[in-house]
Amino acid sequence: MAAASLDPPAQAPAISRLTDSHGRVIHDLRVSITDRCNYKCVYCRTGEVGAQYPELKIEEYLRLIELFVGLGITKVRLTGGEPLLRRGLLDLVGELAGMRTVDGRQLEIALTTNGHLLEGLAAPLKAAGLARVTVSMDAVDEPVFEQITRVPGSFRAVLNGVRAARGAGLTPLKINCVLLRGFNDGQIEGFAHFARQEDVIVRFIEFMPLEEDRLWSPEIVVPLNEIVDRIHRVMPLVPLPAHEASETARRFGFADGRGEIGIIAPVSQAFCGACSRVRLTSDGKIRTCLFSQIEHDLYGRLRAGASNDELRAYIVATVQGKEARHHIGESGFLKPSRSMVHIGG
Ligand code: SAM
């Protein structure tokens, strides 16, 4: 009989999953791949165009994303700026589709876009491995839409993009609408109809103080309760259960069973306690919160020749220091150093 081996059983190397000091597990990574945008939405931009921060090479994003995935990230959302402007996007998606999570599953890949270039890119993105897109639309009335984007022809382009994305199977298709009182709060009921007509999930987002200019005030925010009440009056709603604890949107279905809306209420009903996100800016800095006052220069370390082990240790330590919550609306609130378009929403 063969002697029993005295060696300890082979063990998989320990993987340190990303957690923070508040006990949250971080499994969502948002990556901005450019801070250029082809829209100048009035609530977001001052009207200046062009990038403020450099972009990394596609292979550099991939190296950094792979490190995060090795630390337990299961979902990567590409954003910007406007990610469809980024050359090399299809290659990036194709490479991400080949990555596996630490559990050996396929990485969930999503993208947030203004939809302007989506008509031509929806099918190639799907073929490259993209699972879903979220399209930002802040009005369903063409003139209101174009007053917001400040780009003629943008409404038609985005509508065609939405339909192409649905046709390509980038579903469930979500539409994000940021509501500002006095700008587009007249669109709420129209969006409820749009959700059903176009078979999309419309999610209303409370406006946060992340604009380039100074526009935010508590009064300009259209809170969750008001949105629900207004839709419910014309089309009765029923609450739907969350898909997962860290889901940002509160879900509602129409009472007749056809269609869904969601409300993301970071201001009136903050969900920081369930936050599972970390961000990488287009120039390779880690942001642990949208409202962080400091950034962590991961790319600077890569450029200086840090090894993968050193970069991983830096990511783990940085995420440990993630902020407990934001302080929107409190006295002493400080706007972050970057605005939404340059962080990556
Ligand atoms: N260009 C892409 C797009 O339009 O979806 C991705 C970047 S954009 C910054 C991402 C999302 O952030 C958009 O839905 C936009 O409406 C939203 N956003 C911009 N500024 C915001 C703010 N101050 N508060 C809440 N959402 C904001």
Mean pLDDT across all amino acids: 93
Helices and strands, in order, run as EHEHEHEHHEHEHEEEEEEHHH
Radius of gyration based on Cα positions: 21 Å
Q: Which distinct ligands sit in these coordinates?
A: S-adenosylmethionine
Please give the share of residues in helix.
Answer: 25-40%
According to DSSP, the number of beta strands is 12
**Estimated share of beta-strand residues:** 15-25%
Shape: globular
Neighbour order of strands in the largest sheet:
7-8-9-6-5-4-3-2-1-10-11-12
User: Helix count, per DSSP?
Assistant: 10
Structural class: alpha/beta
Structure characterization notes:
It is a single chain. The chain has a 12-stranded mixed sheet. It contains 10 helices and 12 strands. The chain has helices spanning 58-69, 89-97, 118-128, 142-149, 154-168, 188-197, 224-234, 298-303, 308-320, 340-343; strands at 28-32, 75-79, 108-113, 132-136, 174-179, 201-206, 237-239, 249-254, 260-264, 277-280, 285-287, 296-297. α1 runs parallel beside α2 (89-97). The chain has 345 residues and is an alpha/beta fold. Bound molecules: S-adenosylmethionine. The site of S-adenosylmethionine has 19 residues, from β3, β5 and α10.
